[in-house]
Amino acid sequence: MKNIYLVGFMGTGKTYVGRILASRLKRTFIEMDETIEARQVKKIADIFAEFGEKHFRDLEHELLIELAEKQDLVVSCGGGLICHENNLKLLKSSGVMINLESSPEKIYERIKGNTQRPLLNVPNPLEKIRELFAERKVYYDQADLSVRSENETPEQVADNILEIIKSKLTKE
Prior knowledge:
The chain is an alpha/beta fold. It has one domain (3-171): P-loop containing nucleotide triphosphate hydrolases (Rossmann fold). The chain is built from 8 helices and 5 strands, in the order βαβαααβαβααβα. The protein has helices at 14-25, 32-40, 44-51, 53-68, 85-94, 104-111, 125-140, 154-171, and strands at residues 3-7, 28-31, 73-76, 95-101, 145-148. The protein has a 5-stranded parallel beta sheet, with helices on both faces. The model has no long low-confidence stretch (mean pLDDT 92).
């Protein structure tokens, strides 16, 4: 079966929901940022600091190429992965994209104080979240499904996704 790609802004719960979803579907779970960190033996923030964002995006793209050749994965994608046309094409051709949605304010509440988010190591992180969110919305809107993750637990979000998937499969 096709891969399930969880996309959306950082702090929307892609990793937590992905682990639950993979467990319930008996699929392998891949967290892209964790995989890149393990392969590079560096934190994402250090990769950004040492080599820049473009290098990190290249690493993301290379990993996505590998994952797109596999099946039955649940993949938690980095928040900016979908914003590159080549990645968007790979995601669409090899799986189902599920966008986890949350408001910029809720995202800020969840991730404030986390210094491992290199794009938010700025004087006004909430404003940066709003800016990036606005830029990326057009990409997130291209997902096959969107599920709110703002006021639900990761378990509830996973349940919602499973219900939508089940409903779509019975209609086809």
